Amino acid sequence: MKSVTEIFGSMVFDDAAMEARLPKETYKILQKTIKDGKHLEISVANVVANAMKDWAIEKGATHYTHWFQPMTGVTAEKHDSFISPKNGKVIMEFSGKELIKGEPDASSFPSGGLRATFEARGYTAWDATSYAFIKDGVLCIPTVFCSYGGEALDQKTALLRSMEAINRQALRVLKLFGNEDVKSVKTTVGPEQEYFLIDEKAYNKRKDLIYTGRTLFGARAPKGQELDDHYFGAIKPRVAEYMKELNEELWKVGVLAKTEHNEVAPAQHEMAPIFTTTNIAADHNQLTMEIMQKVAKRHGMVCLLHEKPFAGVNGSGKHNNWSISTDTGVNLLEPGETPYENAQFLLFLCAVIKAVDEYQELLRISVASAGNDHRLGANEAPPAIVSMFLGSDLSEILDAIENDEHFDPKQKELMRIGVHTLPKFPKDTTDRNRTSPFAFTGNKFEFRMLGSASSISCANTVLNTSVAEELKQFADELEGSKDFEADLHDLIKRTIKEHKRIIFNGDGYDDSWIAEAEKRGLKNLKTTPDALAHMLDVKNVKLFTDHKVLTVPEITARHEVRLENYCKVINIEALTMLDMVRKDILPAMSDFSCELADGAAKKAAFMPEADCTYEKETVKSVSALIGAAFRAVRKLEEDLLSSKSIEDFTELADFYKTKILDDMRVLRISVDEIETIAPKEKWPYPSYGELLFSVR
Ligand code: ADP
Ligand code: MG
Questions:
Q1: Which of 250, 258, 275 to mutate to test the pocket of ligand 1 (most atoms within 8 A of CB)?
Q2: Which ligand is closest to the CA of 456, given by its number?
Q3: What whole-number distance in Å separates Cα of residue 513 and Cα of residue 506?
Q4: CA 70, 73, 76 angle in degrees (round to 5)?
Q5: pLDDT profile of the chain (696 residues), mean per 10
Q6: In 237-321, where does DSSP find H-type helix?
Q7: Pocket of ligand 1, candidates 331, 435, 443, 444: which has the most ligand atoms within 8 Å of its Cβ, to mutate?
Q8: SS3 of 356-410
Q9: Is 272 a pocket residue for ligand 1 (Cβ < 6 Å)?
Q10: Which residues, in sequence order, are CB contacts of 138 under 8 Å at separation 6+?
Q11: 331 ligand 1 Cβ < 6 A
Q12: Bridge-based pairing state of the strands 89-92 and 83-86
């Protein structure tokens, strides 16, 4: 048995491995290139590649891949072996060129029209800030993925650019406070990942889970989550075995898996890692999702990452804990020890408040997907309205600043920036509100709207870039100041006044909040098409282009990819429903009612006075419901047919949102109702009870 410290990072070509295996000079140059984000010289790359290959072969690897994150939401890899022919034999080779750049034929990845098929080549380039690692005998090199013309075709490129943007602007602000020693600023993320585990045998019998990741039909089981007995409950042995292996696999590839527990819904669990630099956290989260699914298979289970696998119980999300820190080890969202540090904290806090208010649509867009639409605003996840929770302590301080008041009655002076020390906010006084989409939790923000299945890159790209923009505006205003403290005070006061509408400490699940939010002018973008309608707003395009995070063609392409994905997902769901109903459910139920009718007829012939109420009533109900289901099938088929003539993606998405989803809802109602009447052995699929309670 190896110890955890031995296991951890054993499959990562990390700093220790580099230092041990690279010549001193090469190691130094590589470190510097990583730190400055510069390109690696080919001569250096050759040495690094060779050492990396030797290390990988020792660990049993035979292949390498440029591991990247196209706009499909999952990762992509194409394996190449290290072999190279020599004198009728082979030797194992890996060059610097192969390490730093790849040229996959990438014409089948979504590009939103960015790349025509005649120039199908894309290229991948090593993100040297994220370590290479070995997965299933393949050396994986984390890379960005671009078109031949240099346009980003992936999630990572924009994320890295957004990290540069916030670095640039935060450094300007820090200089104003005399922090000359800070060389770089990075955002950090700790994403909490929710998931379901169900038995593989039951899964294999559900076409809906196989094709769409969620159940499209299913009558509620007698028991759901109403007893709150699963949340933080004792972990069942089979799940505990799974979690043990999951942790080990994650530790091997350097993921800081830390917390594990049962979640609210039956069969639902969560894993939270310790936070790390944002691009690495994004890579690790992709790896986590992949490994979660792989390990589940080994235990005869399936890990469901869909946002809403089951109706009637909670779906899954991803809490994105986010902060900003300096290379000198200071968390900029941590209230400091001195009045001066507090002034700096308040300015960064204001930047986040202003960013969330001004770019609320973009934040909503960043988490929008067909799957997540089932959660947001459904009283199990934050509402679709973006707002911020600061907690009463911090809110009182902001009020005092805004209104020139005392924030502590014992204090004689009015609340002035740079004069008062703020109290430290213990986590338990700041983190009480679980209904808020964006909560301050003592020294970080927790963005809680993310769906469980999606990459965290998009949300963090928006967060980084929007906060960068506000920091830029602040720096522009303060850099020429003659009276820094007074101007800073005014700026903070003004920002609070102008953007406090985004702050809401109340219950986000309460209906009154919807009306209140509307009064405040906050957007309630309920669905993905509603949200995407704002993606190309002038303000949003300007944000991305000003900070060189995305170009106009890149944003337009992303908009198209997102709309297209929404339509395709719902289309697959609709077709799956039709398949299940026409091929399995209707024939089974028609047989069932005929058998009942036959049986009743026989019974009556044999004994005219026999009570046939059950048979008669059931045949009547089932026949009526079959009829209703069949009409709903027809309607869905007709609407799917008419959707074919819609060419414009915006219009099509709208059609899916209104017509198709509604048809699917109607169809489900009658089918679920029949399931409650049908005998167990006649129903073609495992029930909700079997799916949710079968893993012990
Ligand atoms: P919970 O939200 O479940 O109560 P915690 O608040 O303790 O749990 O932590 C949640 C996540 O926040 C963890 O992944 C943790 O590593 C992360 N986190 C803590 N500090 C920071 C930070 N400065 N930046 C980003 N994430 C952080
Ligand atoms: Mg949390």
A1: 275
A2: 1
A3: 8
A4: 45
A5: 92 96 95 83 94 97 95 88 94 94 80 68 89 96 90 94 97 95 96 97 98 97 86 90 97 96 93 97 97 97 98 96 96 84 92 98 98 91 93 87 75 62 60 83 94 97 98 97 93 97 92 95 97 98 98 95 96 98 98 96 95 96 98 98 96 98 98 97 97 90
A6: 237-252, 278-298
A7: 444
A8: HHHCHHHHHHHCCCCCHHHCCCCCCCCCCECCEECCHHHHHHHHHHHCCCCCCCC
A9: yes
A10: 61, 62, 63, 64, 65, 77, 79
A11: yes
A12: antiparallel
**Both tokens assigned to 661:** 């989803």
Separation of CA 192 and ligand 2 centre (Å): 7
Whether the Cβ atoms of residue 109 and residue 121 lie closer than 8 Å to each other: no
Angle, helices 613-643 vs 661-677, to 10°: value is 160
Question: Which residue pairs from 593-598 have beta carbons closer than 8 angstroms and sit at least 24 positions apart in sequence?
Answer: 593/618, 593/619, 593/622, 593/623, 593/626, 596/622
Is the CB of 271 inside a 6 Å radius of any atom of ligand 1? no
- Cα–Cα distance list, 198 to 259, 297, 303, 477, 695 (Å): 21, 10, 7, 55, 6
Is residue 305 helix, strand or coil?
coil
Distance 275 CA to ligand 1 centre (A): 6
Q: What is the pLDDT of residue 226?
A: 84
Instruction: Give the global pTM.
Output: 0.95
Assign residue 213 a region: left if phi > 0, alpha if psi is -120 to 50, beta otherwise? left
- At residue 35, the pLDDT reads 82
**CA–CA gap between residue 257 and residue 274 (Å, rounded):** 7
308 CA from centroid of ligand 2 (Å): 19
Q: 319: CA distance to ligand 2 center in Å?
A: 6
Ligand 1 contacts CB of residue 441 (under 6 A)? yes
Report residue 286 CA to chain centroid gap: 9
188 lines ligand 1 (CB under 6 A): yes
Q: For residues 131 and 140, what is the distance between their CA atoms, to the nearest angstrom?
A: 9
What type of residue sits at position 552?
V
| Cβ 189 under 6 angstroms from ligand 1 | yes
Query: How far away, in angstroms, is 317 Cα from ligand 2 center?
Result: 11
Three-state SS for 270?
Answer: strand
What whole-number distance in Å separates Cα of residue 624 and Cα of residue 677? Answer: 12
- pLDDT score, position 435: 87
